[in-house]
Amino acid sequence: MARQLDEQIVGRFPVGKRLRVLDVGMGQGTQALRLARAGHQVTGLEQDARMIAVARESLAGEPEGIRERMRIIEGDGRDTGVHFLPGSFDVVLCHGVLMYVEEPDPLLAGLARMLAPGGLLSLLVRNGDALAIRPGLSGDWAGALAAFDTTAYRNRLGLDVRADRLKDLTATLAGIGAPLHAWYGVRVFTDTAADGAEVPADVETLLAVEEKAGRTDPYRGVAALLHLCGVRG
């Protein structure tokens, strides 16, 4: 996904431009910190105190120049208008968040308002069109059958969450003024790997396969996750 995001950034903004990035629901700060290391000015918004603590600990170990480029704010992603002015950011990330939000449209509209004209909105969501893949490949036939007619599922943390369908998000992005520009699949082949599975020795080949599949039909359509990139008009 990081490679996909970098492809969109390089294709949209001048080389060397220091971008203003907002990471909503940044978690432990993996992408936020990576982009700060790349020279961008990054703001991470997160409401989980444990995740904030992990992100702050990681940031504390970075050189001063990187620490100065990243700030962390405790808050709910649905309240971006409380913290920031409209059009304040060139890039807004919202990765792995929508599955926990029962009504995502107000959140997405708020994220779009944070973007400057031509800004990039990057979403990572559970693929509602492929919920039967994981149970089907693991031999859970009843679970696979039930998954065809729903966007609800139980994740690996044991939480009851929701998925999004590509056509629905495409319509939503158009409606909030950040129409879909590109989309990718994420975890096409590796989603069924056991938690804690050892990283293979040929990890670069694995990544190359996933990257290729994530941009190639029909493979990307059955990925566990979808990476959608909208552009503010």
Briefly characterize the structure:
The protein is α/β, with parallel strands linked by helices and 233 residues long.
Q: What layout of secondary structure does this protein have?
A:
Layout: H1 2-12, E1 20-24, H2 30-37, E2 41-46, H3 49-60, H4 64-69, E3 70-74, H5 80-83, E4 89-95, H6 104-114, E5 115-126, H7 133-137, H8 141-147, E6 152-154, E7 160-162, H9 166-175, E8 180-186, H10 203-213, E9 225-231
Parallel strand pairs: 1-2, 1-4, 2-3, 4-5
Antiparallel strand pairs: 5-9, 6-7, 8-9
Q: How would you sum up this structure, described in words?
A:
There is one protein chain. The chain has a single domain (1-232), classed as Vaccinia Virus protein VP39 (Rossmann fold), CATH 3.40.50.150. The chain is built from ten helices and nine strands. The protein has helices at 2-12, 30-37, 49-60, 64-69, 80-83, 104-114, 133-137, 141-147, 166-175, 203-213; strands at 20-24, 41-46, 70-74, 89-95, 115-126, 152-154, 160-162, 180-186, 225-231. β4 (89-95), α6 (104-114) and β5 form a beta-alpha-beta unit. The two termini are 24 Å apart.
Keywords:
single chain; alpha/beta; seven-stranded mixed β-sheet; two-stranded antiparallel ribbon
